[in-house]
Amino acid sequence: xxxxxxxxxxxxxxxxxxxxxxxxxxxxxxxxxxxxxxxxxxxxxxxxxxxxxxxxxxxxxxxxxxxxxxxxxxxxxxxxxxxxxxxxxxxxxxxxxxxxxxxxxxxxxxxxxxxxxxxxxxxxxxxxxxxxxxxxxxxxxxxxxxxxxxxxxxxxxxxxxxxxxxxxxxxxxxxxxxxxxxxxxxxxxxxxxxxxxxxxxxxxxxxxxxxxxxxxxxxxxxxxxxxxxxxxxxxxxxxxxxxxxxxxxxxxxxxxxxxxxxxxxxxxxxxxxxxxxxxxxxxxxxxxxxxxxxxxxxxxxxxxxxxxxxxxxxxxxxxxxxxx
Amino acid sequence: xxxxxxxxxxxxxxxxxxxxxxxxxxxxxxxxxxxxxxxxxxxxxxxxxxxxxxxxxxxxxxxxxxxxxxxxxxxxxxxxxxxxxxxxxxxxxxxxxxxxxxxxxxxxxxxxxxxxxxxxxxxxxxxxxxxxxxxxxxxxxxxxxxxxxxxxxxxxxxxxxxxxxxxxxxxxxxxxxxxxxxxxxxxxxxxxxxxxxxxxxxxxxxxxxxxxxxxxxxxxxxxxxxxxxxxxxxxxxxxxxxxxxxxxxxxxxxxxxxxxxxxxxxxxxxxxxxxxxxxxxxxxxxxxxxxxxxxxxxxxxxxxxxxxxxxxxxxxxxxxxxxxxxxxxxxxxxxxxxxxxxxxxxxxxxxxxxxxxxxxxxxxxxxxxxxxxxxxxxxxxxxxxxxxxxxxxxxxxxxxxxxxxxxxxxxxxxxxxxxxxxxxxxxxxxxxxxxxxxxxxxxx
Lengths: 324, 444
Known about the structure:
Chain A is 46% helix and 18% strand. Chain A is α/β, with parallel strands linked by helices. About 3% of the residues of chain A have low confidence. Chain B has a domain of 202 residues. The longest helix of chain B is centred in the first third of the chain and has 37 residues. The C terminus of chain B is likely disordered.
């Protein structure tokens, strides 16, 4: 009896707590919209994905004729498959999807195509040729830009000298390998560049990179350049350098992603030397979908360009995003 | 014989010594020829790196000694880093303040009331013996709840005014150090209540909390903020730096918290009735209940302690890595359980110690450090850590001497068995048949 009462009470409390929270995240659908566009996001736990959603939502505000439905796959393939199935049932006019992984989501994307839905795939592709369009950044290209820049910092082509620490993103993830390969396409040509670490993965995380860098600093008396596969890891390395009191020795720290409230802010504060933009395809994806619904032709592939963010243009980007 | 037993009993410490020797032997040297692994800075770094896992493992040990498990610690810590980071960087009644301030008020109030009652109950028992029944009438008020309740209310009010006074500006170090662990403690209390009152299995109850705490963390931070950055001196108080400084240039602050927790709860487990109850319940909950131990209260307290320590770990995480994020502690519960198990605590409960956990945490930390200093590929590191867990637990779980003797007794009959499997069609001999049967028992 007591136990039942307890369960009842805790149930009621949980319900009450949830209701209190709901209004924050819940937005009612706009009335009188011409088109319904569904967007299946893989996860919103990573800052880059959060920016991605911000970009697409900001773009949607410019188009009152569109109702945008965003779902969150919570970093689980099966949840995202269910999300897309749900969007198919809702008969959206176009489907945007940024898949968590290609293999697990190809099936449900084909199901949407079979239901006569135009599908635009963002960031990571799926294993089918039947999609309407793919929009994404090119990590090899960004890695190359970072590599070229690193060579320039260390003395220029043919003369570059220095000890480099590279902190990997998640091992076995395509972006990490692409960012590695692109970088090395330039730096491997330089006989003066020495690599100090052997495939050390910070798993994209600031805290793990901090610990890797702490040991690397202990192990090596001379480090010239740190290359993190993303900005939080580069920043984590900077914090380790700062805590070890060696900001003077380590000349350059480079990251990738250039989110306004992360990488760009850190460049602006002088923590990072530079970061390279890995643009989110959010805004472009929605624009392309609207073009398509208006009857225009759209190309099968769009590759988003990168951008070097250093102390010269960081302030401008922050101002544009209302952060300065 | 006695020496052998002593060696067997202290085998965990020998393992630690072995790891240290291996680390020192393999370690790279600085250009001036100093051994890096043995350098003071490296060893204090290891001690700092293990502190967060260590704090969580301390609470986990008590829960596991009771035969329970707490899967929620990682999420609870992640959620608490958000609370901590928000309190530090955002003024006003944010979601974090709305939850943190009442949590601190209630937790401190109750703790004060319980403490006063505990102290006076003890005093009274002593005096009763001295002075006989006459005093009992005078002391009656102490024995009841009236005075503890008054003290509790006073403490709660003081906490509330202290915390609320910090809300309009941002929270200071002390306020964060009170509010964040108290918030985590509340989540731990929910775990405890679900297990004790709801009658849920610990695995299920804490699994549910593991999922919900992640949700609470994300909702609190808001959908737009997967990560809350803390820049001390810019958007948060500079005093917060204290929590990752070196104390007198000797010990990292996080390690001070870790060592204090180990010593305090080690003493509780060893010298107090509460500690004896923990072992008794873990050994046989039914027997403990029948002999009059308040099993539910002890279990409840264990989950509360586990939550509290996860909250302390959260503050230290924010201080060290300058950020709060909902998934900060992902996988932490497994690291903590691994450390507890390496330390020789049985997952069935009733057997183990905090000293073991301390060594287990250190073994894990030193191992990571050696692999990192040796610059071993990340993937190989994972594999080696897995092997070390299996190895140490084999040595720990089975009585190692027993394992050796059993192996030796198997050895003569194992040789023909191998030969038998090589030669086709040979029927198993009588000698190897019982071995096969024994294996089948273990696998099925």
